[in-house]
Specification:
β4, α5 and β5 form a beta-alpha-beta unit. This protein has helices spanning 12-19, 24-27, 39-45, 78-87, 113-122, 141-150, 210-215, 221-228, 243-261, 301-314, 319-327, 331-339; strands at 9-11, 49-51, 68-73, 96-99, 126-129, 159-161, 167-171, 180-184, 192-198, 200-202, 206-208, 266-272, 294-298, 347-351. α9 (243-261) packs across α12 (331-339). 32% of the residues lie in helices and 18% in strands. The protein is globular, with a radius of gyration of 19 Å.
């Protein structure tokens, strides 16, 4: 299996901690690049931190001298989810939306209510979603509400379909593909946002994490088409002829969302369990053929998704998911996200397990 060099900056202490954590078997040991050197030798070469670059000579924009903090726990439980939220040191200032995927029936790998319920209730959060643009059981509000009830979400918190009463447009600045985003009108009712994502593969984007959960998940149905078509239309098929263009639009939608809401009002958590090559929008996904990894959290969605991708590449049993990511050029979403200033692909992995 081809393994690219990591786009991470990881303190040597974090590497040693991660190598000894309970998830070491799933992670394939410590995080390191594929240069043939030990992590310690690489850290010494780079002045005390591990940094690798898989650009194959392509020059990326200047990166921040301060890598983003990405917190990690191998404890995939309700308690672990609350602890990693607390590690971020973030407190909402107003009404809080918790963006999840409700999951397409009958057998998708959505995050279960028993896993997320304690955290949602701790925040007094409202679970939010938008209807789909591709049919299925969540294409209309009535059906989508039934799915949310059947999957147990209405039993743990209030549930809001943000596009049920229409949509609104927010501007995008500095984008190559989009000049606006189109979101459910109820998005304007929330001050603070927890983007709570199940990290996994995706048939169109290669992988789905925090950026996908915002870029498609908070878009209204017409907004979903607008992103999928790289800003060329708001109705019709979600298919687009140029893969990289739609991946760039995906990143730009999140940039528009961040700019409107304010980055201080958003946090991101990715749960790396049930790591199928297929998204939770697939009602009959492939069975995962790799071990669960853990939960990661950050205030930087680019760093968070990059860290998850790196952990997938380091896992010894991730060939199917790696192939899915590479076959869709999924890394380009992160490349463009960094280019437009959404976040940084360099990060420090901070392990919170005792």
């Amino acid at each position: 299996m081809k393994k690219p060099l990591l786009f991470a900056v990881i303190s040597l202490a974090s590497i040693l901690l991660l190598a000894g954590c309970g998830a070491s078997n799933d992670l394939g040991g410590s995080l390191s690049s594929e240069t043939g050197k030990s992590a310690a030798a690489e850290a010494s070469d780079l002045g005390g931190s591990l940094e690798a670059d898989g650009t194959s000579g392509d020059k990326l924009p200047q990166r921040s001298p301060e890598p983003a903090a990405v917190y990690f726990t191998s404890d995939i439980s309700a308690e672990g989810l609350v602890r990693i939220y607390e590690a971020l040191g973030w407190t909402p200032s107003g009404k809080t939306a918790v963006k999840i995927s409700t999951g397409e029936p009958p057998a998708s790998n959505y995050l279960r209510p028993e896993l997320i319920g304690d955290l949602v209730q701790k925040l007094d959060g409202t679970i939010v979603e938008c209807n789909t643009a591709y049919g299925g059981s969540r294409a209309s509000s009535a059906m989508h509400r039934q799915v949310a009830e059947d999957h147990g979400f209405t039993a743990i918190a209030d549930f809001d379909l943000m596009d049920e009463e229409g949509e609104v447009e927010w501007p995008v600045t500095g984008g190559r593909r989009l000049d606006k985003i189109i979101v459910g009108s109820h998005a304007e009712n929330y001050t603070d946002w927890l983007i709570l994502s199940h990290f996994k593969g995706h048939a169109m984007a290669g992988f789905g994490g925090a950026i996908k959960n915002v870029g498609i998940g908070i878009s209204s149905p017409s907004g979903k088409v607008y992103v999928h078509s790289a800003g060329t239309r708001t109705s019709g098929s979600i298919m687009h002829s140029d893969q990289d263009e739609w991946l760039e639009a995906l990143a730009e939608m999140v940039s528009g969302f961040r700019d409107h809401v304010g980055e201080e009002h958003i946090i991101y958590i990715n749960v790396m369990n049930r790591l199928s090559v297929d998204c939770d929008c697939d009602g009959n996904p492939d069975e995962p053929d790799m071990h669960d990894i853990g939960i990661l959290a950050s205030t930087d969605p680019v760093a968070l998704d990059q860290a998850c991708v790196d952990l997938v590449y380091q896992a010894p049993d991730s060939e199917a998911l790696v192939n899915r990511i590479e076959s869709r050029n999924g890394i380009h979403t992160l490349e463009h996200a960094e280019e437009i200033g959404l976040g940084s692909r360099t990060y420090e992995l901070v392990k919170i397990d005792e």
